[in-house]
Every structure is written in C-alpha cells, then in structure tokens.
Design a protein that fits this description.
Blueprint (H helix, E strand, L loop, with lengths): L1 H21 L6 E7 L7 H13 L4 E5 L1 E2 L2 E2 L8 H4 L3 E2 L4 H6 L22 E2 L4 H13 L3 E8 L4 H6 L15 H17 L4 E5 L10 H14 L3 E5 L13 E4 L3 H9 L4 E3 L2 H4 L21 H11 L8 E6 L7 H8 L2 H10 L5 H17 L29 E4 L33 E3 L3 E13 L2 E8 L9 E4 L2 E2 L9 E8 L3 E11 L7 E8 L1
Parallel strand pairs: 1-2, 1-12, 2-7, 7-8, 8-9, 9-10, 10-11, 11-12
Antiparallel strand pairs: 3-4, 5-6, 13-15, 14-21, 15-20, 16-19, 16-21, 17-18, 17-20
Amino acid sequence: MRRLLVSLFALCATLLSFSQSSQPKPLPWRGMMIDVSRHFVPLSELYREVDIMSRYGLNILHLHLTDAAGWRMEIKAYPRLTEVGAWRTRQTWKEWWNKPENQEGQDLSYVRAYSNSKDGFGGYYTQEELKGLVKYAQAKGVTIVPEIEFPGHSEEVCAAYPEVAFNHAEMDVSKDETYKFMETILKEVTEVFPSTYIHCGGDETATQKEEYPNAIRRMNSIVRGLGRKMVVWDEALSDSKADSSIVIMVWRNADTGKKALALGHEVVMCPGSWCYLDSYQDAPATQPETMGGYRPLKHIWDFGKEIAPFRDKLLGAQVTLFTEYVPTVSLLQYQLWPRALAMGEIGLGRTRSYKEFHKWATHVTDSLRKAGVNAFDLRKEIGERPEYFKKVKHLAIGGKVRFNGNCHYSDVYSAGGDNALVDGLQGTWNNNDNRWQGFCCDLDITIDLGKERTVHGVTMNFMQLTGPEIFFPEQVTVNGEQCTGNPKDLPYSICNYTLNKKQTTRYLHIKAKRSPRNGWLFVDEVIVK
C-alpha cells in the first residue's frame, strides 16, 4: 500500500509538473494604453484603473501623454507646452478636430486652435501628481510607461514652440535645436517615470520621409543616454539590425511583428484590428459612437491564438484605447472593461477555454459594475451580425464581375478578390473582416450572369461608419434604374438598397455614386433573385 501511495504521489507530481511546463510563461509586458491627450482623464480615474489592472494580470499602464489634442505633462523647462498646448478651444475632440478656427493665411483643414487655462478646455498633470501616481502603481505591481510623441502628432508643440516646427503638425527633424528640445523634455520625463521604457511615438509622419530614419536613430541615442530603452510605433522599423536596441510596438499587423523579431527587436504586439478598443464591442447600433470596427470580448481573447506561434519571443502585448470618441470617464470605463480582462488572460498565459473565461469575465464584470465601474454588461451582449452566418443562394453566384473605367476595390479591403460580391458571403459588423469590399471611388461594375436570366430583384448592403470616413452612397442604380433604400445618417449603420423590377438580362450594370463627403464605399454582396 505504501509503495502504491508513493507511486500515486509521484504520478501526481509528474502531471502537475507537466501541466505547469505546458502552460505559457507570463509575458513581461501585459499592457493597457490610455490616451489622455484627446480627452483629459482625471488623475483619480488613473488611480482607479491601476487598481483594476493590478487585480487582473495587467502590469503596464502605457500613458499616451501628448498628441495634437493636448499636452498633458508639466515640463518645467518649456512651460508653454501646458500654458498653451494643454488647452483647446472646444470641449470634445470631435467638434474641435472637425471645426478648426478660421485663422487667416493658414490651411483651415488642418489648423487646430489652442487657448489657455481660463478660456480653454483640457488640463494637465503636474510632475508631483505623476510621481504620486507612479509610486502608487509601483506598490500595486504596475509600471507606468510614458509616451511623448515625436516628430509627428505634434500640433500642440508646434503651436507652443514654433521654432522647432517643420509645419503645423511635425517637429523639424533637420534642426539640432529640435533634439536639444526633446532631450530636455525627456530628461524631465525620466525624472518622474523610473520605467525602463520610454515611448517616443514615431508614427504617421506625413513629411520629412528621407530624414525620418536618422531622426529615429538620434532619438534612440538620446533615450539610451538617459539610461532607458526607447519604444516606438512600428513605422520606425527598418531593414537594418543596427537599430535593434529599439523596442517596436506593432499596431499594423502580425507580420510586422514577425519581421521586427527577425531583426532582433524586442516587440510589443497591439495590432489595431485585434487590440484597439476604440471600437464597437457589440451590435454597433446599440453602442456609443467609436472610431470604428467590431471587437467584442471574444475577438480580443482570440488574439492569444494569433500570437501563439511566436509568443515566447515577445516582450509583450497590450490593448490600446485612443480616446477621440471617449469624452467622459464613464465611457472610458465602458470601452476598457471587460475587454481588457482578455489581455490579462493572454498575458498571463492562461489556457482555459473561452467558455470558462467568459463565465469568469461575466462575474468580474458584475463585480466591477457593483463597485461603480461602468463596465459593459456581458449579460446583455447581442453578438455578431446574423447575416454573417448564412450563405446566400442567388442567381449571381459564380458570375463574373467586371470593374469599369477607373473603378476598382482597394487592395486593403479586397474581401477575397474580383468575385467577392457574388460569393454568397455577407459581412460581419466589422468593415475589415475580409467580407466587405471597400472602394475609394464611385462603384461601377458589370456582373455577367453567364446567360440570360429572369431577374426579379437586386439587393445589396452598404455600410456607413463615419470614423474612418465610410459613407452611404448618394445613389445606387442597376441597369440605369434607381434603387430604393432608407439610409440613416448615423455614426454606424447598414442599409439595404433594392431594385424590385422584373427583367430578362444577362448583364447587370451596377453603379453607386459616392457621398458628397467622398470617403469610402463598402458593400458586402450583390444578391440577385
């Protein structure tokens, strides 16, 4: 009996050892980014977010402290960054960005207006306030990584200190003065934030393309000279191993992360299509306006499968909340929770099923809501667009689609290619799901049905998603006949355009004229009955 017990004990120990070794190790960087520039977030809310993060496996709070909409950290050497750059002329980002002040001699589509603490909207954190937050977070096991944008996304810097400006939005990377300016700022930043990592932006620089690589190298030299590691968005990734000391934060796609790893970089994964929380987490018509996209809890959780093949090589992963459409604390909480729980799950390397995770997340969400956090109620989740699950049978399946004149779909939104509009597959709530086909032009196509057929009706769905400038068409016609529809000018909507007319024909010539606002047209299937 004793031998049997010893054997059973050994077996249990072996199984436990196997279980522990088969579970992935926690990622060093299990992050959540909050953009406090587009809308200023009160310090008290950042304390609360640290509390929640620390309970559920997240250990990095990435603070996006600067951007066009506001500079949020006191810099003693350059007081105008907060005297001017922290205050804007309109309360919400949306009305400010879309309605710039009329300033003579300037490009009104880009100029943004700044104000002062008396008349403007915004705010900033003093260095002492941030030091207090950092100390509190450290005690909770959370590291705060600051982000100071360079050289783009810098309208507020250029307004406050035009001597370092290249244009209205970018710092001049050809001037030594610009680097002295940034070095002084970053020295103050490192005195407040003891994090190993300092994020220096580097994304979406529209001009100065030839100078950009050298600018990133010079910034990296400054950061390393301060004893820290520089993190940048993935536009800074080059084909050279010379800059492998730079940490790449991937926001575009998983392939970019694989490339960065191959070049020897530390990598943090947060591709927008998986990890950006400025998106709808349930049926969009039931949700507050967002920048766009449909990313429910399960979608974030599924990201763990996306990175699984190279997870052990990563520094980390994070969810990211840009706040263009998040003007209140209540909405900030709603967009973060419970979806950020999925990143904690991924980061810790837990291997339970989604069903088990969802049950746990539902109970956590209940607890958060009882504690006064405005988390999305998982018990009321509607879920995916029903049409996505049904393959439609109709007369045009297998037909050929010809694109007339200069009309052609975007390579980014091809939805599978030339015959995507007649494959019987309809899209999800998400425009970039490889089901919706996107056109940055008027739609002009001809569908060949293969032979003459009796057609009783033609139906097609268009999407409107105003954040990324996807709009309903001004009009839709089939063989010159106008289709009917009931488009609603909402931030998100799907509208069915239909022509109910019997005709005998082999060809359907379909045209859709773009909205007067231009932008994109997105269509998911042409259904021919």
